[in-house]
Specification:
By secondary structure, this protein is an alpha+beta fold. It has five helices and eight strands. The strands form two sheets. Strands 3-2-8-7-6 form a five-stranded antiparallel beta sheet, with helices on both faces. It has a three-stranded mixed beta sheet with strand order 1-4-5, with no helix packed on it. Strand 6 and strand 7 form a beta hairpin. The longest helix is centred in the C-terminal third of the chain and has 44 residues.
Length: about 190
């Protein structure tokens, strides 16, 4: 029993270190996946905001085809004025033009930009970006797209890190067991 206690203490130290390393890897990669999911929307909303400031027609920018966000992976535009009136929508949710919450419109009007995860219905998670247009006539261009592919990658990452963590803990125990066995063998041979 006495031999097992030092083995367990050492294993716990290494296991704790490995747990922290795996946790850091997971959080870092997961955040990279999630934040990069905003990149196309940042470009789309930013370009639309600049075009609106130069007099572009909101309906032309939003497009004539509406994206059904519960079924599509495509990026889309929804354009508002700063008073909260929807001027154009290139997106639908269950056949109804997508409505951005009033609090988000107010936030973007005050701060110039916002990026967030939005779930307008169960199972419909969107990476949304809103950008306030520059200039005298202010508009807000919102762009979004489904997070389903990113969430699949995050689930795969979770499984990979978990498997790596388990294999590492077993590997640490195995190496430690071998080292203890070798040390014991040398002690016995020295005593002979």
């Amino acid at each position: 029993m006495n031999r097992f206690v030092p083995f367990l203490k050492t294993w716990i130290i290494f296991a704790t270190s490995m747990t922290l390393v795996c946790g850091i890897i997971y959080v870092t990669v997961q955040q990279n996946y999630r934040l990069s999911a905003n990149d196309p929307q940042l470009q789309l909303a930013g370009d639309a905001a600049v075009a609106l400031s130069k007099g572009a027609d909101p309906k032309t920018l939003a497009g004539s085809q509406s994206v059904e966000i519960s079924e599509s992976l495509s990026a889309y535009l929804v354009i508002y004025d700063t008073a909260g009136h929807q001027l154009a929508s290139g997106a639908n949710l269950n056949g109804i033009p997508l409505r951005i919450p009033a609090g988000v419109i107010t936030y973007v009007t005050k701060n110039g930009k916002d990026a967030a995860t939005w779930q307008p219905a169960p199972g419909v998670r969107q990476a949304m970006v809103g950008v306030l247009s520059p200039g005298q006539h202010r508009f807000i261009a919102f762009s979004g797209r489904s997070l389903s592919i990113v969430e699949e990658r995050i689930n795969l990452l979770r499984k990979q890190v978990l498997l790596g963590w388990i294999v590492s803990l077993i590997g640490i125990a195995f190496v430690q067991f071998l080292l203890n066995a070798i040390e014991t063998k040398f002690r016995i041979s020295e005593n002979l």
